[in-house]
Amino acid sequence: MQHASRLAAAGLAVALALTGCQSGDDGATSDEVAGEITYAIWDVNQKPAMQRIIKEFEQQHPEVSVKLQLTPWKDYWTKLKTQTSSKTLPDVFWMNGPNFQTYAAGKQLAPITDLFDAGEIDPANYPDDLNAMYSWEDEQYGVPKDYDTVAIWYNKAIFKKAGVAEPSDDWTWDDYRETAATISKKLKGEGIWGSAEVFSNTASYYHSIAQAGGHVINEDGTKSGYADPKTQEGVQFWRDLIESGATPDLDFLAENPGYSLFENGKAAMQWSGSWRVAAMAEAPVKDDVAVAPLPKGRERATVIHGLGNVMSAHSKRPAAAKAFLTFLAGKEAALANAETGAANPAYAGTQDAWVKSQPGFNLQVFIDAAEQYSRPFPISKRTENWTKYESEYLAKAFRGEMSVEDACNELATVMDEELAKEQS
Amino acid sequence: MTVTDVAAGAQVSAATPRRRRPRSAMRRQERRWGLVFVAPTMIGIAILYVGPMVVSLGMSLTRWSTFEEPTFVGLENHVRIWTDPAVWRATLNNLVYTAIVLLGVPVAVFFAGLLARPGLRFTKLYRALFFLPYVAMPTAIAMVWRMIFNRDFGIVNSALGALGLPRPAWLTTEWLALIVVALVALWMSIGFKLVILLAGLQSIPPELYEAASLDGASSWRQFWHVTVPLLTPSIFFLTVTTAIGGFQVFDLVYVLLGQSNPVINESQSLVYLFYHAAFPADDKGYASALALLVLLFVGVCTAVQFRVQKWWVHYD
């Protein structure tokens, strides 16, 4: 008898612990630009940049104090949901494309259209696609913080050791796979892989699917693209990469994450995003790292995505939260993102500062990708409801438990069911 | 309590009817004070245990997630449990896990017997060493074991490799992962079990050992025929709490294996399943139904143990 009740109590305790870190607000909603507000983020690598922004903001608004709340990516959305249930969302927090519509439609975000109308924030400073990503039913709910694309991160020292040519701008999928397999074979004795991949949608397969000419979801977000043979080619690319011995399999990566392998000089290449810059700059391999454009499939492509800053609809200090959000949208905050290398800012004209933050990395590749051949990130109203199936089925394909074709076809079926539910 | 009270009252009233009133007044007062004394505990249990339990029951009859209003669905979640293969796999995992961790009881009895031997030096040091894993943070411990059992760089596989033996993927192979989790839990729990058993040992009168050795019993026979029988109340306590703990396991599975583990679906426990339904999957109705299932299992398992105990536990 005691057990489940103890369980329930534990659940309650967890909920309290998760939400209890809220600021010491004492009930009443305050219209003054004053008091303590919280700002929730998920990337430890960007913490110094965010701290700098907070410091600059607090100098301008001494009566406001901002508390930074860092929750690692893998728990961030779980925690946010718990906070949503208990109406204790942070005052201002990071949002991404796949989750935005869920929160906007769920009435958890405060509209900030008035800030745009009043000219406090000028939409012309950000790419149109990103503004659109954070608007819902004619209201603006978020300001683009940064944008990211993906490239090949590679380790020059390992290429030299293996005696193979570094990635070039005109690489194809075959070049990538063959080079990675060659390096794996040559340096096996030292435990070095040709590539160590992340096998996530953001870092890996959304990009290869676009390069194969496939699509994850149709334009109005109502139908899955996984039944398309071209989409399946984009998935097959990763299965082939594992089978050729170029990259470790998922079992190996479960115990030794791809990011750690690359950062510790155990892998020559990795598909990953511009969000890794701050981490790479601290990594043991920092002096040997550079980026090159992703290899070409049928086309040259990468998927672009950007974070947004949003504020809670239930904030006890909406005026202070708005003031902070406005500051986050401004040029100073963008430069803090850029100069620390934390993220490629969305604010027009500040990207150069980001490229220069790590001159050795050749970060211009990410900007060129965004400007020349980027595609929108696939989302729908309740993206999360089908991405959980996506990672489940594709893992089966990557592990060879199912053929890529079967896994993708089954995924298309369940994804269509979820999308149909969204429409009803 | 009431039963004995009533029985005692009946005896008293039959024997001395005239003094009945003052006695029962006193008893009433005693009872009142008794209630006052247990009140803090009872109130705590009501608020923190019984309340959430009732709420869970209510929630289990709804479909409830963060972004929708709860809707009443009757027994849908409870019916779903019966058709969800993950639930039965998790139940099996819990049983295997509990069986392995229960092996810790005889192991602890053995070590307790050794530690209690007269003339043993450094007893306190040994006790501290055994107890250390119990007071360390499970999460931290799990991180260390995760490194120890790492397929490619772990110390276990390095040793096996040096001996020319196969190097299994401990944490990513079906069953093996579960067994590793159970062994770590067993190792962690020895310290607590030892403390309970050592306390139990101190209540065994030394005369019994004297008598036994006068009768020519070897120390092995003394262990079996004096120590073990008189320890059975402590052993019973340990099997009950270990079995309950076996159904509760969550943290070790979460840290040692984790969500991205390829065999997590084959290795998860019921509470892990509950956590996954409640938080990442955001399906609070189903999670509540799972919590009630765990309650049922623990209730049945504990009731059975209390029934069986009279066959093997000696309370004198």
Topology:
The complex is a heterodimer of chains A (424) and B (316).
Chain A: H1 2-19, E1 35-41, H2 47-60, E2 64-70, H3 73-85, E3 92-95, H4 97-105, H5 113-117, H6 128-133, E4 135-136, E5 139-140, E6 142-144, E7 150-155, H7 156-162, H8 173-186, E8 193-195, H9 201-211, H10 229-243, H11 250-255, H12 258-263, E9 267-273, H13 277-282, E10 289-292, E11 302-304, E12 308-311, H14 318-329, H15 331-339, H16 351-357, H17 364-373, E13 374-376, H18 383-399, H19 404-423
Helix pairs in contact in A: 2-15, 9-10, 10-18, 15-16, 18-19
Chain B: H1 2-15, H2 20-59, E1 62-65, E2 68-72, H3 76-83, H4 85-102, H5 104-115, H6 123-135, H7 138-148, H8 155-162, H9 176-202, H10 206-214, H11 219-248, H12 251-257, H13 264-267, H14 270-278, H15 284-308
Antiparallel strand pairs in B: 1-2
Helix pairs in contact in B: 2-15, 3-15, 4-9, 4-11, 5-9, 6-9, 7-12, 9-11, 9-12, 11-15, 14-15
Labels describing this entry:
heterodimer; A: about 425 residues; alpha/beta; five-stranded mixed β-sheet; four-stranded mixed β-sheet; globular; B: about 325 residues; mainly alpha; two-stranded antiparallel sheet; flat; disordered N terminus
Provide structural commentary.
The complex is a heterodimer of chains A (424) and B (316). Chain A is built from 19 helices and 13 strands. By secondary structure, chain A is α/β, with parallel strands linked by helices. In chain A, strands 2-1-3-12-6 form a five-stranded mixed β-sheet. Chain A is globular and about 65 Å long. Chain A starts with a helix and ends with a helix. Residues 1-27 of chain A have low confidence and may be disordered. Chain B has 316 residues and is mainly α. Helices cover 74% and strands 3% of the residues of chain B. Chain B contains 15 helices and two strands. Chain B has a two-stranded antiparallel ribbon with strand order 1-2. The longest helix of chain B is centred in the N-terminal third of the chain and has 40 residues, at 20-59. The radius of gyration of chain B is 25 Å and the shape is flat. In chain B, 28% of the residues are buried. Classes of the chains: A alpha/beta (424), B mainly alpha (316). The A-B interface holds A 1-9, 11-12, 74, 78, 81-82, 84-85, 102, 105-106, 108, 191, 250-252, 254-256, 388, 395, 399 and B 45, 48-50, 52-53, 55-56, 66-67, 146, 150-153, 169, 171-172, 244, 247-248, 259-262, 271, 274, 278-282, 291-292, 294-295, 298-299, 302.
